[in-house]
Amino acid sequence: MRDSILQKIILPAAIIIAGFAAVVFLSGFIERRRPALPAGFADSDLDLNGSQLVGFAFGMEGLLADWYYVRSLQYIGEKLVNSQDQNIDLDDLRGLNPRLFYPLINNATDLDPHFLAAYSFGAIVLPTIDKEKAVKFAAKGIADNPNEWRLYQHLGYIYWRLGQYDKAAEIYERGSSIPGSSAFMRLMAAAMKTEGASRSTARSVYREMLVESDEQTVKDVAERRLLELDSLDERETIDKTLVQFKDRNGRCANGFGEIITLLMKADLPDGRDFRVDAANRLADPTGEPYILDKENCRVRSQNRKQ
To answer: Could you give the C-alpha distances from 135 to 39, 125, 161, 168, 258, in angstroms and in order?
Structure first.
């Protein structure tokens, strides 16, 4: 009887416990000695492509598309928040290695081909990650929604960002022929052919995005770009004034206070004026004080790498 209990209960139990202990030990051993993976492998690959679910989600495609879209928003946000770089170039996010953004946003539009918000967000972010995929994604939106003029605006914007002004003009022209499209589309078609690289064209593009878009993320980007353009105008004027002061006095100004009277008389686009903060410092459009680089006798902004 005692031998039977030993063979049937105690011995198997002891083997299981020993095996479990061995697994725990080996798992810990492997984990401690596993080589560190490059940052690019920190993201988990998507388990399933949204296109594979089309027709098999029992009418839940829209809900799944929303999930992929929200996840794409969170994904980029997490990349920005967790970055160790204090001066992230928002025009080039490749350094963050956001390799899953395209699969996420593309899945959203595979599941819901008429998801205009996803196309808008993708058109803003993808050019900073992968220009070819940005064009491909926006073109896909037009193929699925040929009568949505805003999608032509997105693709025209991408080509404009790429400096392909003739192509941008062609897309804006196509979009302008759609019933109900904004008059802006025809204006941009003409502007791309004559002054595609100008600051005034850029300002028109972002003002239209700010007014027409229903997506807060797109509005935020447009607003930031407009502030950057205002800052470029201001810095250009400040630099010219610094040169004038140096020519007259044989030295660079010791501070902006020496040229503030001249600056207040300068003409900025749209009748804007320079601003001074509460500490009486010359400030950029975001309220941050400008910095005088006396060595090079030029102005620098705290908000952008110069």
So the answer is: 27, 12, 11, 11, 49
Among positive and negative, which fits the CA dihedral 123, 125, 128, 132?
Answer: negative
Q: For residue 147, what are the contacts with CB-CB under 8 A and spacing of at least 6? A: 178, 179
Least confident of 74-83, 102-111, 132-141: 74-83
Query: Helix 183-195 vs helix 165-176: angle between axes, to the nearest 10 degrees?
Result: 160
Q: What is the pLDDT of residue 100?
A: 93
Angle among Cα 235, 240, 245 to the nearest 5 degrees reads 120
Split at pLDDT 50, 70, 90, the class of 136 is very high
The span from the CA of 289 to the CA of 279, in Å, is 9
Question: CB of 232 within 8 A of CB of 199?
Answer: yes
Q: Which two tokens stand for residue 291?
A: 């910095």
- Tokens 């459009």 correspond to 285
Q: Which residue(s) pair with 282 in the sheet?
A: 276
Say whether 198 sits in a helix, a strand or coil.
Answer: coil
DSSP calls for 127-155: GGT-HHHHHHHHHHHHHH-TT-HHHHHHH
User: Whole-model pTM?
Assistant: 0.66
What is the arithmetic mean of pLDDT over 6-17?
52
Compute the CA torsion angle 26, 28, 29, 34 (nearest 10 deg). Answer: 120
Find the DSSP H helices in the chain: 2-5, 11-33, 61-82, 101-111, 116-125, 131-144, 149-161, 165-176, 183-195, 199-212, 216-249, 260-265
Q: Report helix, strand or coil for 289.
A: strand
How far is it, in rounded angstroms, from Cα 126 to Cα 93?
Answer: 9
